[in-house]
């Protein structure tokens, strides 16, 4: 992965890691891949947003012919929304994000 520095921000795969413009949020993203042929596209988007991903777990549910992926994220709402938006536009893929409540899920300081 190539690291680029731009005006105080660090970019990984095109994702800005400069959280000064917004507060970092903790959340979980649920992804259901019904068209397994789209798995490479989903993984490509997740790779692009590796800088905000804390961890992921993928479960192939063979009886139903789908894969279920949970992704733990820590990023601005804009970053998380951009990632879920890209994933949601992939045919045969559903995505939903949930955020921790403000008391525990928003950092009390800006992350640099």
Automatic annotation (TrEMBL):
Family matches, as SUPFAM superfamilies: ACT-like
Highest taxon in the source lineage: Bacteria
Identification of the protein by name: Iron-only hydrogenase system regulator
């Amino acid at each position: 992965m190539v690291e680029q520095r731009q005006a105080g921000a660090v970019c990984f795969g095109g994702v800005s890691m400069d959280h000064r413009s917004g507060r970092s949020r903790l959340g979980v993203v649920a992804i259901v891949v019904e068209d397994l042929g789209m798995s490479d596209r989903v993984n490509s988007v997740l790779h692009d947003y590796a800088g905000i991903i804390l961890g992921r777990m993928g479960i192939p549910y063979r009886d139903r012919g789908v894969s279920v992926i949970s992704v733990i994220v820590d990023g601005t709402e804009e970053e998380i929304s951009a990632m879920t938006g890209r994933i949601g536009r992939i045919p045969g893929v559903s995505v939903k994000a949930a955020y921790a409540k403000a008391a525990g899920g928003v950092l009390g300081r800006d992350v640099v």
